[in-house]
Amino acid sequence: MGKIYSSFEIKNMIDRAMTAQEAKNKLLEMMIAFDSFCHQNNLTYYLSCGTLLGAVREHGFIPWDDDADIMMPREDYNRLNTYTKIGDSIDIVSIVDDCGYYHPFAFTKLSDNTTVSLIQDSERNTGRGQFIDIFPLDSIPDSDAEKKRLLNKLKMMHRLRTIGVRKYQGGVQGIPRNTLTFLLRPFSGLWFMRRIDKTARRYSDDDTKKIGLLCYTTKDSYCWERSDFQSVSRVCYETAYLDIPAGFDSILMHQFGNYMQPPSLEERIPKHDVTMWWKK
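Request: output the structure for the sequence above.
Response:
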């Protein structure tokens, strides 16, 4: 389990806050390095979720977005996790190697070691820097009964996982919630993440019709037809060219609906309450 830093320790690590543009520049730099690394090592990847949407609709970052997401076939994802670094400045932080790992989701992260991310509403800051989430694409059984059993099991595991990482709540009304959080906290780190990962890849050897981001969520909007990922397209993303699945239209329609229509002004807000800092 990675070290958890106090607010005092974090403050001694940081220099100055990154501007929004500096944070995006760092993300793009990391994405370009990852793209080069994958092509050099014959690893398949695709831009995912809002990053895929940005690539198609904006040809780069969604203006109000603050992160980057990537997905990989399970076999390539497992191979990625045999590495620990990309160049000198990007750490591959995964549940395979517990050195510095902490995240309330069972998937890998790329972490820049020249910066520090500070999560505003968290008791557990790891001192890790600007990050990219890397999701494995796992097989979903064709049998409705098997699919229901798998997704229900994962759904329960995800719920218990989130309870174990919650902040303690003040006042008498928080006692039941805090008790459950206390009991589950020892299992909220690598122990829980590895079991979620093991369950999610249970059907990885099966050539099923659908695949999804089961280590992240069991929502249907994150499950797609395997045929949409049979080949890769290269698209312009800001100043770079990056990989997306050839079936991006079907994937985005399933996840977002009319994805070429931007959301209302009220919905154009960052998803994460995180500030990025340059490291001393």
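The radius of gyration is 19 Å.
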